Amino acid sequence: MTLIEAENAIVEEFSMYDEWLDKYEYLIELGKSLKDFPEESKTEDKLIKGCQSRVWLDHKVEDGRIVFNADSDAIITKGIISLLIGLYSGRTPQEILSSDFSVVEKIGLKENLSPTRANGLVSMIAKIREIAYGTEGLV
């Protein structure tokens, strides 16, 4: 599935819910689907700065693609990072860098978060882009 197709699928998933309470529940369920994040990997260098809650993002490069793993100590935030890595994990740096991340506007996520969570979302996106930019020449 291409990145555009994956983004469209997320927009479609979110459009099934009329109320934001239901969309938050969906995000919480997404967060529960994250694979285990080892406690020893919860280090300062993997912590995303700018998030109210603690969010750790780790990555590795496999066959020219960036594979992300993440965790958070807050359930909604865990759902948000799960949504993002669900879209961008397994993509090439070029695919990630070519994305405008407009999917968050299309589903109405940013404007339906508290200001501190919205800032955290922006920080998560910035970190994913930073990782893609940093690995671009390596693949």
Which structural class do you get from the secondary structure elements? mainly alpha
Major beta sheet, strand line-up: 1-2
What is the end-to-end distance? 21 Å
The ordered H/E elements are HHEEHHHH
Provide the low-confidence segments as ranges: none
Strand residue percentage? 5-15%
Average pLDDT, all residues: 93
Shape: globular
Cα-atom Rg, whole angstroms? 14 Å
How can the largest sheet be summarized?
2 strands, antiparallel
Residue share in helices? 40-55%
- If helices are DSSP runs of H or I spanning 4 or more residues, what is the number of helices? 6
The strand count comes to 2
Task: Quickly list its features.
single chain; 139 residues; globular
Compile the SSE list and pairings.
Layout: H1 3-15, H2 20-32, E1 55-62, E2 65-72, H3 75-88, H4 93-98, H5 103-106, H6 115-135
Antiparallel strand pairs: 1-2
Describe this structure in words.
- This protein has about 140 residues and is mainly α.
- The protein has helices spanning about 5-15, 20-30, 75-90, 95-100, 105, 115-135; strands at about 55-60, 65-70.
- It has a two-stranded antiparallel ribbon with strand order 1-2.
- α2 (about 20-30) crosses α3 and α3 (about 75-90) packs parallel to α6.
- It starts with a helix and ends with a helix.
- The mean pLDDT is about 95.
